[in-house]
Protein: MIP29918p
Organism: Drosophila melanogaster
Amino acid sequence: RHQLGLHCSDIDIERNRDPVMKYLMLIALFVVAASATDNDDPISQESNVEYNGKYHYHYELKDGSKATQDGVLKSVNADHNGESVNGKYSFVADDGKTYVVSYTADENGYLAVGDHLPTPPPTPVSVLKALEYIRLHPYKTPEQKQ
């Protein structure tokens, strides 16, 4: 929730008795207060955390923003536990369009997908050929002389 604060320690209203100045300060205060919006107030909200580390949350705000996330603890290998997360969020941008991002995060990293997100250029053919050559001709460690 947005909070609005006004600190007037540098203004001594008792010494400044000019009624026009007080009137202008009052108008400025009303303008600032009126510009604060309640668009980030929640419409719906849910959260669930289970004893085994599995969780889910979802919320939706008045401004049209939404978010959902599910997570679970998992064993990555014998020495390491990790978390796997899947989620999605959306928001309405200044251009009036709704943007949606879906994501996963786990031991392999974070991957976000959205129609508005940039995509990498295609891999050049020369790189693909080099990778294929490496796959077909793996490096062999030379034997050491005794």
